[in-house]
Specification:
Strand content of chain A: 5-15%
Distance between the termini of chain A: 69 Å
Oligomer: heterodimer
CATH architecture of chain B: 3-Layer(aba) Sandwich
Number of strands of chain A: 7
Order of helices and strands of chain B: EHEHEHE
Number of helices of chain B: 3
Shape of chain B: globular
Structural class of chain A: alpha+beta
Helix content of chain B: 40-55%
CATH class of chain B: Alpha Beta
Largest sheet of chain B: 4 strands, parallel
CATH superfamily of chain B: Response regulator
Helix content of chain A: 55-70%
CATH class of the largest domain in chain A: Alpha Beta
Radius of gyration of chain A: 25 Å
Number of helices of chain A: 8
Strand order of the largest sheet of chain B: 2-1-3-4
Shape of chain A: globular
CATH topology of the largest domain in chain A: Heat Shock Protein 90
Number of domains of chain B: 1
Structural class of chain B: alpha/beta
Strand content of chain B: 15-25%
CATH architecture of the largest domain in chain A: 2-Layer Sandwich
């Protein structure tokens, strides 16, 4: 109404101008409402997903602690196995919480990569080791090739988080088969390609699922769980490490190639 | 008493199996909805524990499909994981 009154005072053609302005304003408000609605929906979905992701390992931990308590006196080996499962689930919780915190820091612009000397082969081996019991239960085998045993300067925690997200996806979506991890150091770049034999990712969906909260199948009752953050965080981390993470189209299974900046530690030391 | 557990998480399945077996229940374990339907039809369990989120046939689909195929067996139902519905 203010716009209309103002326009009429200025010009005889003002009704048309006022109508256009009102329509424009309505369009902008409608757009904002739609965006707010989508954000609210994503927020609820995210809270649901994270709650579910937290509850699953917690349930397993509680069940296995109970079973450990029952077995600890006369079935020591069983109790030991149960405690190992509790440890495995605690690690799963840590990965989830790390992902949520990293996402939060990225959103607030507070994330900083912290490069330090490390051996990429050791980082890869440690992450694979974390998944070993779970992969064994799912009939997934891992083969690692490539020599990345030279000490490099990179953010080893971020590298472990990226690899953890990629392997966690394999754990969730691939019912069995081989996982190939091929790595190489080329110049100042560390390249790691992870390929599985699962259902794969359609090329058309590859870009979409690397965005926050996006998953290949976002129906409420789809087959596997997840927050929809893993790949988005992995891509952001790779970017913060001066590199990239991309989906590589493949005939069978899913394949991701990670490239991050990784100058050799001895070259940095000699330059200093 | 026979309990059918259906869950795609092997660790959850193993833990539930151990807990139920400890209490003297007979357990049937299914890694997905299809296996759950097969075990339901063959063994007529007294209780079903179905995770909602499972590959192929999810927990929501198992119950009507099992009922349609006439599995019966005096089944009680427990849904393991509720989300959104």
């Amino acid at each position: 109404m203010v716009l209309i009154s103002f326009a009429r005072a200025k010009d005889d053609h003002s009704p048309l101008l006022a109508t256009v302005l009102m329509a424009l304003l309505g369009f902008i408000v409608f757009g904002q409402q739609c965006r707010a609605s989508v954000l609210a929906e994503q927020r609820v979905s995210f809270v649901n997903s994270v709650s579910h992701e937290l509850r699953s390992p917690l349930t397993n931990m509680l069940l296995n602690i109970n079973l450990t308590t029952e077995a600890i006196d006369d079935k020591v080996s069983d109790a030991t196995r149960r405690l190992a499962l509790v440890q495995e689930e605690a690690r799963r919780l840590c990965r989830l919480i790390d992902n949520v915190l990293t996402f939060s820091r990225h959103e607030q612009g507070q994330f900083r990569s912290e490069p330090r000397a490390c051996v990429p082969a050791s980082v890869i081996a440690a992450v694979v080791e974390q998944f070993a019991p779970s992969f064994a239960r799912r009939a997934l085998t891992v083969s690692r090739t490539g020599d990345v045993s030279a000490a490099c300067v990179l953010d080893s925690d971020a590298l472990a988080q990226i690899l953890g997200s990629l392997l966690s996806n394999v754990e969730k979506y691939v019912p069995g088969g081989k996982i190939k991890i091929v790595s190489a150091l080329t110049g100042e770049t560390l390249i790691i390609r992870i390929t599985d034999e699962g259902p794969g990712i359609p090329v058309a969906a590859a870009e979409r699922i690397s965005r926050p909260f996006e998953r290949l199948d976002s129906r409420v009752n789809e087959g596997a769980s997840g927050t929809g953050l893993g790949l988005a965080i992995a891509r952001d981390l790779a970017s913060s490490m001066g590199g990239s993470l991309r989906h590589v189209p493949s005939e069978r299974g899913a394949s991701f190639e990670l490239r991050v900046r990784a100058p050799l530690a001895r070259e940095i030391a000699s330059a200093a | 008493m026979k309990i059918l557990f259906a869950d795609d998480d092997p660790m959850t399945l193993d833990s539930l199996d151990a807990c139920a077996a400890q209490e003297g229940f007979t357990t049937l374990l299914a890694r997905n909805g299809r296996q759950a339907l097969d075990l339901w039809r063959l063994h007529l369990p007294d209780l079903l524990y179905l995770n909602i989120k499972m590959p192929d046939i999810d927990g929501y689909e198992v119950l009507p499909t099992g009922t349609r195929q006439g599995s019966g067996g005096g089944v009680a139902l427990s849904l393991g994981e509720k989300r959104g519905k």
